[in-house]
Specification:
The chain is mainly β. The longest helix is centred in the first third of the chain and has 28 residues. Helices cover 14% and strands 61% of the residues. It has 2 helices and 12 strands, in the order αβββαβββββββββ. Strands 1-2-3-4-5-6-7-9-10-11-12 form an 11-stranded mixed barrel. A hairpin with a 3-residue loop joins strand 10 and strand 11.
């Protein structure tokens, strides 16, 4: 019972933290999207993680997105392990990662949405230049106020680890395409650039910039967003 209460307090605290960060940043810079991800490596091929973030997608209002996921891995590949040996995220060394998650999206002026989130990710190394190419295929299956909508998202990301003295960081760039069931077409494109900064063994900061071009409605809508992710990595001893 105590663990359940503690988890509820953690979820509430993360939601309040995200809300405070968003309102503070909006007053200063415009659109800012904070995010916290906590990962727990339960087995060599199984990882649990919890996500709390602010999200803005497909023209919907800015809202929190909170919930757990399970990651299932294939074995590491030697080439991938070599390219990603300085990465905090162990899933990048796996050629295929299947993730199943649930998210709650409490909109401020609309009914809460419930989302199932299956994700299939392929990691491909380019050894000669030490690049990592990631192809993420994600579905957002949303139930809201008795209605159902779905979205397919395909993101291609290029990343490379760089060494600065004894420190390693990982800049990246990505492009993501959205197919929206409500429009029956490819209705959104997001172009992002950012960098992963490890902070010791368990923490990582990821600031990024994203430009969205939404073509679902006429005229098109374009948005510039700044985000800051805090990733925490833990493992079973």
């Amino acid at each position: 019972m105590r663990r359940l209460v503690d988890r509820r307090k953690l979820c509430l605290g993360l939601a309040l933290l995200l809300s405070a960060c968003r309102h503070s940043a909006l007053a200063q810079t415009g659109q800012f999207l904070p995010e916290i991800d906590i990962y727990y490596q339960a087995q060599s091929n199984l990882r649990l993680w919890f996500q709390a973030m602010e999200t803005f997608e497909a023209g919907a209002p800015v809202t929190a997105e909170i919930g757990p996921s399970l990651d299932f891995y294939l074995r590491s590949l030697a080439l991938l392990s070599d390219v990603t040996k300085y990465e905090s995220d162990q899933s990048k060394s796996r050629p295929i990662v299947l993730s199943l998650g649930y998210r709650c999206l409490p909109y401020p002026s609309a009914p809460t949405a419930n989302r199932m989130e299956p994700v299939l990710t392929f990691n491909l190394p380019i050894p000669k230049v030490r690049f990592l190419v990631t192809d993420r295929n994600r579905a957002d299956l949303d139930w809201q106020n008795g209605g159902f909508t779905w979205r397919y998202r395909n993101r291609i990301q290029l990343e490379r680890s760089l060494r600065m003295s004894s420190y390693h960081l990982s800049p990246y760039a990505s492009v993501e395409f959205y197919y929206e069931s409500q429009y029956n077409k490819w209705a959104d494109t997001a172009i992002s650039a950012g960098c992963n900064f490890p902070l010791g063994r368990h923490f990582e900061l990821n600031p990024y910039y994203e430009h969205q071009n939404q073509t679902g409605n006429n005229p098109n809508q374009q948005y510039n967003q700044f985000g800051l992710m805090l990733n925490m990595y833990f493992a079973r001893r």
